[in-house]
């Protein structure tokens, strides 16, 4: 399941993915395709209940798209690149399992768009964040202009995108871009701890359903969201995990969820 560009290991039901193109782990077309293949493999792996993504080395989680590669593209290649990035990040966002970004240092451009496609973000205290695309004559076209406003609010997203300015980890946490800031070097441990807490304590089926309702419901009316909620709750009503969870509670023991 490992690729040279995206190294993967699975332990305790958690898939740890490492972008492996230091020093900046740029998102080349090859890296995007490797991520896509990895998440397709994860979707078929019944042992995985959570995913953690980080970057190799100490310089960057991901400093964005491969600018050298982009500079050699013809104008007619732009749409292909935009569609590829969007398709890959949508696959990540729609993964059935919680996906956590463990952000070590620079998280810029496409790297920030990748992090925004994750469910949660845990950051090193020396990390820096930014969307510098407009300073290159571009926009965050891999979903950033759509996901970033949903995370930090429209006015703050516009400020970040229009100016291309970088912010530190503490400011990123203040505006809600990251869930938690930890001492440098602890970001993977903190992310793995959260992934373990989810995978051990919660029904994977219930987590999947909750993720689906929150993500889709956030973009709809309350009425439409309620319809989706009822649909997902109906499917949970006769699940093994619900029966096991209630029985375990009554018997005062740890439930043994199967994701069924």
Short description, anyone?
With 260 residues, the chain is of the alpha/beta class. 48% of the residues lie in helices and 17% in strands. The strands form two sheets. It has a six-stranded mixed β-sheet, sandwiched between helices.
How would you explain this protein's 3D organization?
The chain is globular and about 60 Å long. The protein is 48% helix and 17% strand. The mean pLDDT is 94. It has two domains: 194 residues, Alpha-Beta Complex (2-enoyl-CoA Hydratase, Chain A, domain 1); 49 residues, Lyase 2-enoyl-coa Hydratase, Chain  A, domain 2. With 260 residues, the chain is of the alpha/beta class. The two termini are 24 Å apart. The strands form two sheets. The protein has a six-stranded mixed sheet, with helices on both faces. The chain has a four-stranded mixed sheet with strand order 4-6-8-9. Helix 4 packs across helix 5 and helix 5 crosses helix 6.
């Amino acid at each position: 399941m490992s690729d040279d560009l995206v190294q993967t290991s699975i332990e305790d039901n958690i898939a740890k993915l490492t972008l492996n193109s230091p020093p900046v782990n740029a998102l080349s077309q090859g890296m995007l395709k490797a991520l896509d293949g990895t998440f397709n493999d994860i979707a078929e792996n019944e042992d995985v209940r959570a995913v953690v993504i980080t970057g190799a080395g100490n310089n960057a989680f991901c400093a964005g798209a491969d600018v050298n590669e982009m500079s050699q593209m013809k104008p007619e290649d732009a749409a292909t690149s935009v569609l590829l990035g969007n398709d890959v990040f949508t696959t990540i966002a729609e993964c059935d399992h919680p996906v956590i970004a463990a952000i070590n240092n620079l998280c810029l451009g496409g790297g920030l768009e990748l992090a925004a496609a994750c469910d949660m973000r845990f950051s090193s205290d020396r990390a820096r964040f930014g969307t510098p695309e407009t300073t290159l004559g571009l926009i965050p076209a891999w979903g950033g202009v759509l996901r970033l406003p949903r995370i930090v609010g429209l006015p703050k997203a516009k400020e970040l995108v229009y100016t291309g300015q970088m912010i530190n980890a503490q400011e990123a946490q203040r505006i809600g871009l990251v869930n938690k800031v930890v001492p440098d070097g602890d970001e993977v441990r903190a992310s793995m701890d959260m992934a373990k807490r989810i995978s051990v304590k919660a029904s994977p089926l219930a987590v999947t359903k909750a993720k689906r309702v929150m993500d889709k419901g956030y973009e709809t009316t309350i009425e439409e969201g309620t319809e989706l909620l009822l649909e997902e709750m109906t499917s949970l009503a006769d699940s093994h995990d619900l029966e096991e969870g209630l029985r375990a509670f009554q018997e005062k023991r740890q439930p043994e969820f199967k994701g069924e």
